[in-house]
């Protein structure tokens, strides 16, 4: 199984995908005149603006839902893996992916808003919707929807569940080993998995509003708590900060693990963590209640910064400052190590490096804290995955009438979470990488084609900035006058607003 997964990943995550992701980010950065820098203040302002409605969630709730997908295992275990297999220089390439990916996040999230629909009292949107409406390629949209359902409903949840289980075992110990029909399992793993399944079942059967209400409280609180602890550790090792930054930058261009490894792992884990270009963010973006599509695109660009430049960097600095890492020359990470600072029994695909780093500074507290943080990070990510899969089933349901599709999804996802929690970290991550890679390939190609066909995201940005220069109090979006076709929701909204203004 592991060999097959590794072989498939080597094909999907070839240099072609790495260059595609970096190239698309650079291209969109140039086309938007580096909005990730120009509109930084506007990003912060928009986060607190906007209110929810009966059909849509607020801007902040949409940010929280998307962050729940972005901030997860990749921020803790993913960073550790990037350092282990790509060297410290991989962190630099994660930063590059975040900086360039912010523009990609803007493009895909704005498209999600422009081409969203109202479905059974909820806003729905995402790559499948804008591929069909903007590209006119329904077959491509259906194919992407199926890939996304498989990725977010079956492959990716297992990564998050696996990380929660591993962190709990590292913090609490295995407990007793019980023989089950699927093999020996520790009581800790069984207990943690059971808690996840019960809470997950309660929330996912409650719909997107319940997901949004849960994530808007949990995600900001845990992110701030985690970053605060990281800052304390950085402060205690502040004299090493220049050394660590120099190590990251120098290793990015003369890497100890090889140039290909540093860039490859940095890009792979960067995309896995911040999800820019992957096609997940547009689903939450589409659910937001906003006055102008570009507003949510700008907010989602900022979410990439929060994920990678803040949370991932916090993890990287903790690991590197405390020397709680190994650099490996092979996938097993057991022999032929380039650098060995800690025991070989620490799995780089798990939260072990991060927990070891905190334990070295705060004994008895570090490992449990990471386990708790990871529980909430990973759990909210699973919720985001469910919502994404649900949205794509809603898309397929328009033309494919299969009774009980949503219930089947819920059941499959619960099984996936259970399966992932009891499998090895390497298999779980391998399956997750397949899901991320496939979505990345088809979404990035899709948004590039759409851009060259009609440039709707760029037109929306220019329209928003023109209204902003005029100090508009209430923004509007008229796709017909802008030459944007297929934006049915916004056409109807503009006409309705015009009637209200005249009455």
Explain this structure.
With 503 residues, the protein is mainly alpha-helical. It has one domain (2-48, 55-319, 329-502): Up-down Bundle (Amino acid/polyamine transporter I), CATH 1.20.1740. Helix content is 73%, strand content 4%. It has helices at residues 2-12, 15-31, 35-38, 40-47, 59-70, 73-86, 89-114, 127-135, 138-155, 157-172, 187-204, 208-236, 241-253, 259-274, 281-286, 293-321, 352-361, 366-397, 405-422, 425-454, 456-469, 479-482, 488-502; strands at 117-119, 122-124, 177-180, 183-186, 326-327, 339-340. Strands 1-2 form a two-stranded antiparallel sheet. Strands 3-4 form a two-stranded antiparallel ribbon. Strands 5-6 form a two-stranded antiparallel ribbon. It starts with a helix and ends with a helix. 56% of the residues are buried.
Topology, pairings included?
Elements lengths: L1 H11 L2 H17 L3 H4 L1 H8 L11 H12 L2 H14 L2 H26 L2 E3 L2 E3 L2 H9 L2 H18 L1 H16 L4 E4 L2 E4 H18 L3 H29 L4 H13 L5 H16 L6 H6 L6 H29 L4 E2 L11 E2 L11 H10 L4 H32 L7 H18 L2 H30 L1 H14 L9 H4 L5 H15 L1
Antiparallel strand pairs: 1-2, 3-4, 5-6
Helix pairs in contact: 1-20, 2-7, 2-14, 2-20, 4-16, 5-12, 5-16, 5-18, 6-14, 6-16, 7-13, 7-14, 7-16, 7-21, 8-9, 8-20, 9-18, 9-20, 10-11, 10-18, 10-19, 10-20, 11-18, 11-19, 12-16, 12-18, 16-17, 17-18, 18-19
């Amino acid at each position: 199984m592991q060999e097959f997964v590794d072989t498939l990943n080597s094909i999907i995550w070839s240099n072609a995908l790495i260059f595609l992701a970096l190239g698309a980010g650079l291209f969109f950065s140039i086309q938007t005149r580096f909005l990730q820098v120009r509109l930084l203040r506007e990003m912060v302002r928009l986060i607190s603006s906007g209110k929810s409605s009966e059909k849509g969630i607020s801007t902040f709730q949409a940010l929280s839902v998307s962050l729940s997908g972005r901030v997860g295992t990749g921020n803790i275990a993913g960073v550790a893996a990037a350092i282990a297999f790509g060297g410290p220089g991989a962190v630099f390439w994660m930063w590059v992916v975040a900086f360039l990916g912010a523009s990609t996040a803007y493009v895909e999230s704005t498209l999600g808003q422009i081409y969203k629909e109202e479905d059974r009292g909820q806003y729905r949107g995402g790559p499948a919707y804008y591929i069909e409406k903007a590209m006119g390629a329904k077959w491509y949209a259906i194919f992407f929807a199926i890939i996304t359902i498989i990725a977010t409903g079956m492959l990716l949840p297992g990564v998050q569940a696996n990380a929660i289980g591993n962190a709990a075992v590292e913090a609490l110990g295995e407990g007793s080993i019980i023989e089950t029909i699927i093999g020996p399992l520790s009581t800790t793993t069984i207990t943690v998995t059971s808690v996840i399944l019960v809470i997950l079942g309660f929330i996912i059967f409650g719909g997107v509003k319940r997901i949004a209400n849960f994530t808007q409280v949990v995600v900001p609180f845990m992110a701030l708590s985690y970053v605060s602890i990281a800052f304390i550790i950085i402060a205690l090792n502040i004299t090493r900060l220049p050394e660590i930054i120099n190590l990251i930058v120098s290793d990015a261009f003369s890497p100890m693990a090889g140039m290909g490894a540093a860039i490859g792992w940095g890009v792979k884990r960067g995309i896995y963590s911040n999800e820019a270009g992957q096609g997940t963010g547009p689903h939450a973006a589409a659910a937001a209640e906003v006055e102008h599509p570009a507003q949510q695109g700008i907010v989602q660009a900022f979410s990439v910064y929060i994920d990678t430049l803040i949370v991932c960097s916090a993890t990287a600095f903790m690991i590197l400052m405390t020397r709680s890492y190994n650099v490996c020359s092979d996938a097993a990470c057991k022999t032929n190590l380039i650098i060995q600072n800690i025991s070989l029994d620490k799995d780089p695909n798990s939260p072990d490096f991060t927990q070891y780093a905190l334990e070295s500074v705060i004994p008895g507290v570090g490992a449990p804290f990471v386990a708790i943080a990871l529980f909430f990070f990973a759990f909210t990510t699973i919720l985001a995955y469910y919502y994404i899969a649900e949205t794509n089933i809603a898309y397929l349901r328009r033309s494919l009438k299969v009774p009980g599709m949503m219930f089947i999804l819920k059941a499959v996802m619960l099984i996936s979470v259970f399966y992932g929690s009891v499998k090895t970290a390497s298999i779980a991550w391998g399956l997750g990488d397949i899901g991320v890679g496939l979505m990345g390939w088809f979404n990035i190609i899709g948004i590039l084609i759409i851009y060259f066909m009609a440039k709707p995201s760029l037109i929306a940005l220019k329209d928003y900035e023109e209204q902003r220069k005029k100090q508009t109090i209430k923004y509007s979006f008229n796709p017909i006058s802008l030459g944007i076709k297929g934006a049915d929701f916004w056409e109807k909204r503009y006409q309705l607003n015009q009637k209200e203004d005249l009455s």
